[in-house]
Design goal:
Blueprint: H1 6-27, H2 33-50, H3 58-84, H4 93-99, H5 104-132
Helix pairs in contact: 1-2, 2-3, 3-5
Length: about 130
């Protein structure tokens, strides 16, 4: 895996902290929380996309695709969080309640589980690959 520079690592970590803080503040109904989360998700996902795998291990490449999918889910969770503040999609009230309202939580949960799984699996695969060399 390509390693990030010190600045990129700092942006990555700040993005992760902003995501956690934004999600926590949203539960406390602070209006700027969704913007904080979205900023963190953008920083986190963009820095994670810069980490490339340049090897030929199919398992790691598959896990990287799953990780990128979880990054997209983090961004979708931010959009749903913004949409949850008010019906800015101008949807019918029943459709809004059924498909948009508080669904950011489910999207965030799925993204976090995928991220956790892929992070640990990629680490173990990279360790196996290093032992072979």
């Amino acid at each position: 895996m390509k390693t990030l520079s010190k600045l990129q690592t700092a942006i990555f970590l700040v993005g992760a902290v902003l995501m956690a803080v934004g999600a926590g503040l949203y539960v406390l109904k602070i209006s700027a929380a969704s913007y904080i989360y979205c900023l963190g998700a953008l920083a986190f996902a963009s820095m994670q996309l810069l980490q490339r795998y340049e090897g030929s291990n199919f398992t790691i490449r598959r896990l990287r695709r799953i990780m990128i999918f979880s990054d997209v889910l983090f961004l979708i969770a931010g959009v749903l969080m913004l949409a949850n503040q008010g019906n800015f999609f101008n949807l019918d009230q029943w459709i809004y309640v059924k498909y948009v309202r508080n669904n950011w939580v489910v999207t965030l949960l799925v993204a976090a589980i995928l991220q956790l799984y892929t992070t640990h699996r990629i680490d173990s695969e990279l360790t196996k690959e290093a032992k072979k060399l």
